[in-house]
Amino acid sequence: MVVICFKHSSERSGEENVIKALLKIIGEEITGYYGAAFRFLDASHLIPLSIMTALFPTFTKLHLSSVANLKKLYFKILAIMLIIAIPVTLVLFFGAEQIIQILYGRQYTQSANVLKILSFTTIFMFLHVPGAHLLFASEKILKKVIVLSFFTVGFNILGNLILIPKYSLIGASFMTVASEGFSFVVFYLLIWFKFFKNK
User: Fold this and answer.
1) What would the 3-class secondary structure string for the chain be?
2) How far is CA 137 from the centre of its chain?
3) Which single residue of 29, 52, 73, 154 has CA 20 to 30 Å from 18?
4) pLDDT tens over the chain, length 199 residues
């Protein structure tokens, strides 16, 4: 369980640090705008992590006893996560200006546009967390998970190297959404072919 939380936190903080380092080349102020908006992703990330922490023992048990029931539970959780993620996304998107102004003040108005874009990350993030827990319930494919994690982080870093110099805050924000979506697709495919394809 500690490994899962470490993987999530280190991967997310590592990507954030790279983005901030690139944004600092443009200016310290720009970095602050991005960081202020990004904190809301970290906060919303605790919701799916808390749910899956409670369900992880069940995932582990079903992985050993009934893959068919594991499949049913996984897709049921995905549906629940989507139901929770949509209102969270809508609140962050439509309430971005008010949230930023109340918590940070008018000097951080640029963070509102960043938060609007980053809000869509929450959908992929909520859907990705159950899959990550499911994968870590199986030690047999742990090496593949680690390799793919490096691959998805590399995708994020490369994309930011391309987009940030040209599009600054907006480029970093869109790349964060694209990276989370890409990560979800990659690990979903791994789950499907390793666990559920013939079940």
Assistant:
1) CHHHHHHHHHHHHHHHHHHHHHHHHHCHHHHHHHHHHHHHHHHHHHHHHHHHHHHHHHHHHHHHHCHHHHHHHHHHHHHHHHHHHHHHHHHHHHCHHHHHHHHHCHHHHHHHHHHHHHCCHHHHHHHHHHHHHHHHCCHHHHHHHHHHHHHHHHHHHHHHHHHHHHHHHHHHHHHHHHHHHHHHHHHHHHHHHHHHCCC
2) 19
3) 52
4) 434 444 454 455 555 655 656 566 666 677 788 888 888 888 898 999 999 888 888 877 877 777 788 888 889 999 999 999 999 999 999 999 999 999 998 889 889 999 999 999 999 999 999 988 888 777 677 788 888 888 988 898 888 888 888 888 888 899 999 999 999 999 999 888 887 776 6
Length of the chain: 199
Record the pTM.
0.83
